[in-house]
Amino acid sequence: MVLFYKVARASEYLAITGFGVPDIKLAKKAWILPGQICKRFSISPENYTFEVQAMSLEKLPFILPAVFTIGPRVDDEECLLRYAKLLSQHDKLSNHVTELVQGVIEGETRVIAASMTMEEIFKGTKSFKQEVFEKVQLELNQFGLIIYNANVKQLVDVRGHEYFSYLGQKTQQEAANQARVDVAEATMKGRIGEKQREGNTLQNAAKIDAETKIYSKQREGEGKKETAKVETEVKIFENKREAEVAEANAVLAMKKAELQKQAKVAEVESVNAVAIREAELQIEVEKRNVAKQTEKLKAEQLSKTTVEYEMKVQEANWEFYRRQKQAEAELYEQQKMAEAKRVAAEAAAFTRQQEADMEIYSKKKEAEGIVAMGEAQGLYLRSLLESLGGNYAAVRDYLMINGGMYRDVARINADAVRGMQPKLSIWNNGGESCEGGAMKEVAGVYRMLPPLLSTVHEQTGMVPPAWLGKLPAASES
């Protein structure tokens, strides 16, 4: 039996398979038993250089030179096992490993480039590199590999598609055109400034004369306007507070829409900026020439027309301001009246709803009470009927006596014959007197019952219950 003791270097691991090892065993040093196979593999990262040919969203081809530093993830034993299995039949610099890494990088790079425009790739190289790095790392995780570093070099044109060279020429030409435009604009500003100074001298002289005449009118109008303004502002202050909240929300929405609009307009303007700028400068030169001639004519008539114009403008502005504030005050009053009516209507509707709900609730509870009382009476009657052995007549008689029906009948009969001359029957049984005896009262009650029952039967037709006794045969007939 021959044993071997093997030790791995600092940047190596031993992968042991065979006898006594279920799958694969990683170690820095170990005894190699007969029937076991030991293979060394390095965990130091390696550089892989590629030139990936990709195509942008606009179907423009380009070459992306890149250098990736890739190695196994040494802090995860499971990743090391995957990497050891990958290198079980190949070296890390073999064509198999290189083609595997290259296939992953090229595939993910092409997918990402196909979803971006050439301008986005060129200007956002950093974000493009980061996205490629993340996508490739996800694929390499299944082989236990990790990207230690990734460098994306300058994008290169594919032969026959010189996009980047034309883009550089465009940038140089735009800079040259901008320089020429700046020179022309500076020359134009010098000439225009000279003429403006001459015109301003004449205009200021006429303006001072006109301002002196209209100053007194302005002060008088301003005094009246300030008085009316203070009175109006007091009335509309509360209305403004409410309107400012809605206005702020509207302004925010408008600003968002405006920013989106500006972003889209900026994209369109960047394409035709040079042509538009040249046209604007030509138009500006023509406008300056026309303005110079116009100013010359206006200076001649300014002193006469300015005073009349300013006075009419002040009068029109004052009238417009007065009508506007009056309309705003009327509108505010109408809004408050409408709001008060709406609140009153809502309060009345709420009151009616509460009353209806209370009535429904009362009826519901009353019905529930009637049902409960009926159930209790039914239970009471069933219990009473069972106690009397199912004798319905006995139950009826008991209820009549317990409910005081005979007492009510006697009272009703007494009320009916009150004031009349009813037939009175007086009787005794003719027996012995029990005066002085203890049973005198009892004997009197028993003597009184037969005549009483006969009298009730004669006057009302009612028959006494079975448990109380029967009437004589003559009385019943």
Number of domains: 4
- What share of residues is helical? 55-70%
Task: Give me the number of helical elements.
Answer: 10
**Span of the ends, CA to CA:** 138 Å
Run of helices and strands: EEEEEEEHHHHEEHHHHHH
Strand content: 5-15%
* Number of strand elements: 9
Structural class: alpha+beta
Instruction: Using the CA coordinates, give the radius of gyration.
Output: 58 Å
Q: Give average pLDDT, whole number.
A: 77
Write up this protein.
- The protein is α+β, with helices and mostly antiparallel strands.
- The chain folds into 4 domains: 1-42, no CATH class; 43-161, Band 7 domain (Tetrahydropterin Synthase, Chain A, 2-Layer Sandwich); 164-339, no CATH class; 389-417 and 441-477, no CATH class.
- 68% of the residues lie in helices and 13% in strands.
- The chain contains 10 helices and 9 strands.
- Strands 6, 7, 8 and 9 form a 4-stranded antiparallel sheet that branches.
- The relative contact order is 0.04.
- The mean pLDDT is 77.
List the helices and strands and how they pair.
Layout lengths: L3 E4 L4 E7 L2 E7 L1 E4 L3 E7 L3 E10 L5 E12 L4 H10 L8 H20 L3 H6 L1 H16 L4 E8 L3 E2 L5 H109 L1 H115 L4 H11 L2 H13 L22 H21 L12 H4 L1
Antiparallel strand pairs: 1-4, 2-3, 2-5, 6-7, 7-8, 7-9
